[in-house]
Amino acid sequence: MIRIKFFGVRGSLPISGDAYCRYGGKTTCLQIILENGHSMIIDAGTGIVDLGDQIINKTDPLYLYFTHFHWDHIQGLPFFKPLYIPNQDIHFIADHPKGWENNIISQMNGQQFPVKFDHLPSKCTFHQLNSQSRPLPSTLRIDTVPANHPGGYTVYKLTLDQKSIAICTDNELLSTESSARSVSDFAKVFKQCDLLIHDCQYLPEEIQEKSGWGHSDYRSVCDLAAMANIKQLVLTHHDPCRTDQDIDEMRERINFYIKEKSYSFSITMAYEGLSLHVV
Ligand SMILES: [Zn+2]
Ligand SMILES: [Zn+2]
Q1: Span from the CA of 214 to the centroid of ligand 1 (angstroms)
Q2: Which ligand is nearest to the CA of 236?
Q3: Reported pTM
């Protein structure tokens, strides 16, 4: 069994206020929990602050996997309390070109944040995911593929006991870049996944104006899910301008689109506190 908990589902910028409290305003952070007690954290948007508060009394090593290093995926890290626990083992893991560590270290350089990374009392270690060492001690299989996103993005496909989930929070399915993967390329990657967590920042009428920004509209994501024969689609990375009511309306439009196309997967609009199981 794989359990997924959502601590941050907002894209680009954290947001607060009455109009945003149902889906939540914190940026991307997920926790993947396995039956054997092992867990992995995906990304360190502002959602990671709440996650840190929940695990503060545990001393198990922490495994933090990064999809990429845009602000909305790392800006919660300086406020992640386990960083300040003496000798707490924290493993930072990514499948990015060499030098990605600096994206983590440089935001705690004394200029942008008062505490320097070098002065942290925890034991922080960096791992290249494709190296010989396997950071997370588990039978979980971790496959990675790149997505269409400025600066690069790592999709994580996790498989355990023939169940698979894919995490792709930032991806421009309709990218016009010459090196971009097409919707059908991604359908091959996600084929038969039990659960796909995918970027759905924009409405179809917004996507042309946002071309090159690295995100998708609901129509292309639903077409992908149908092509890949996904069982459950979770839509995330909500635009910071989108209120709870706007997201509800988007869901209505998506339901209409799915019905019109006779697609058979279920959809969930991700919200803070959402917890899902893949059994
Ligand atoms: Zn993002
Ligand atoms: Zn991004």
Answers
A1: 9
A2: 1
A3: 0.96
